[in-house]
TrEMBL record, chain A:
Keywords: Cell membrane, Membrane, Transmembrane, Transmembrane helix, Transport. The chain crosses the membrane at residues 20-41, 74-100, 112-130, 150-172, 209-236, 256-277. Belongs to the binding-protein-dependent transport system permease family. CysTW subfamily. Residues 70-277 form the ABC transmembrane type-1 domain. It is found in: Cell membrane. The keyword Mitochondrion does not apply. It is a multi-pass membrane protein. PANTHER family: INNER MEMBRANE ABC TRANSPORTER PERMEASE PROTEIN YDCU-RELATED (PTHR42929:SF1), INNER MEMBRANE ABC TRANSPORTER PERMEASE PROTEIN YDCU-RELATED-RELATED (PTHR42929). This is 2-aminoethylphosphonate ABC transporter permease subunit.
Amino acid sequence: MASAVTTTSRGQGRGRAGWVWALPPVAVLAVVLLYPLALVVQQSVTPDEGSTSLTPYADVFASESFRSALGTTVWLAVGSTVGCLVLGFALALVIAFVPFPGGKAVAKFIDVFLSFPSFLITLALLFIYGTVGMANGVWTDATGASEGPFHFLTTPWGVLLAEITYFTPFVMRPLLAAFSQLDTAQLEVASSLGARPARIVRKVILPEALPALAAGGSLVLVMCLNEFGIVLFTGAKDVTTLPMLVYGKAILESDYPAACVVAVVNIALSVGLYTLYRTVSRRVGA
Amino acid sequence: MTGAAAGPAASGIRFDRVSVAYGGNTVLDRLDLTVEPGEVMALLGPSGSGKTTALRAVAGFVRPASGRVYLGDRDVTDLPPHRRGIGMVVQQYALFPHMRVRDNVAFGLKARKVYKTETATRVADALELVGMSAYATRYPRELSGGQQQRVAIARALAVRPGVLLLDEPLSALDAQLRSGMLAELARLHRELPDVSILYVTHDQVEALTLADRIAVIDQARLQDCGTPQELYRSPRTEFTASFVGNANLLPVTVGSGTVAFAGRDLELFTTDATAGATATLCVRPHLVGLGDGPNALTGTVTEVQWRGSTHRLYVDIGGHRVKADLRELREPPALGQKVTLHFAPEDAVLLPAVDQSAPEAVTATGGAHG
């Protein structure tokens, strides 16, 4: 009994000590992240008059520009994610299972690529496909035409290409990690049992890569929803996403309540998708 | 759904001077070996000897630098693995973790587009053969190592291969399970007498227990080939004598009708070597007796090991370490004690001293020793 009492009091002491240690990081988190977030939410329900109201939400939701930006944001994010998943899976397959000279260097480059800023990729694409880029230059030199045929970079397709180019390595990284864990004997046995390569990919590799695909895909989806730099750098005037709308409302129009409403919607979308990802991945045991 | 590949595949394997090299390093050197239809051939050798490479050459996972591989009468050297019609079981089983047991077993049948109804029947048959019918809906992670092994075997047998490749299939199991699975494999082979089995192992007990013939491989070369009894009783090389049964190998000089060892003349039955030549005398430790007898040798005990039912003595005789496995002794000799060992002339084999730098190539076809 005495030992039980001692154990309990020790446990309580440890619990109290734990709280003490947890307080500083929680406090820092609250000041640095949660407080500004709370201010954004507060501003979104505080119209210019100063009273608390949901009018900013009603106004923003009723506006065509918001609905268009929401639609553009979602389709670009979903399109980019699908593109990244398909391209990332194919590239990771080749790097992991098709031996070629420099394969390891390419795999290492993927890690480096992840540290690049998004605008850098967009800038590189501008050099290639921009109005005065290499591709158009080659075309005009070759044909004598006054301008080249490549003008898609300032359209949603250009944004899509830039996002797929930039975010594909974010899918490849977890996939390569998953492939490195895959028992290659499974692939050999599958082959000895009569399965062709396509069937092995479909029936053996893909199912085992699903958790990694889900992890990479949801990360890319959330990042695409919040992407600002790529859309800005492509110079696509007609492509307005939610982050661009926040920028426009806050900086160009000084409409802070509306900007905060759009920001809150953007946050809700991201958090909602993240929650969905966690729920799904828990169910599939990822 | 054609079911075209559902029939039994060609049985028997033939290696025709197969060499495999990785970056200039030869890992299998001119292997000539024939596994007859329905025969169990064990490839026995230490790690890195080339035995798994030989199996992988049959499976199609390594391409020979030279030579041809035949399954039955068919040259499969240039065929991809999925067109060879083999069954394969590997060390860690390699079950597909996301599939249930029945789907694992059905994998090869579906890949070969066997009719659905026939697939179901054959999956049930294969699982029954290995005693795993009750586990059809389980996932591999819900099975023990031995059960996973059975499923892996069922998966390989469901496609009715003419050739079954087993790559160290029991090495991941504990000793007790291994013994049980050996008996299971022997039973399976009795039930499937037409299937040729190539069994890669470094465990001599597995090879001796299961194989019709054993091919001993070392340093990328076939060293010896014969029935377990032949290899055990009259090995051709020192390596075989040492690797199969851990024999005593004593350097001797051949005399007229006898051999000289440590200043003593020993009588043997096999003394066809030239008088005056050096040779190696091979005596199994369990055929060495303690006390006086024919071919008695006296030496000093350097180590005594109690092994439950036996004692192993290490005795220094003329600077050579001789091993003797004796039924458990009531009063084992002490270290440093002088003891006399003996062996019968018919229990010793005389091996020619072979130049190890250029071992003679061994060609092994059905039934022939060496």
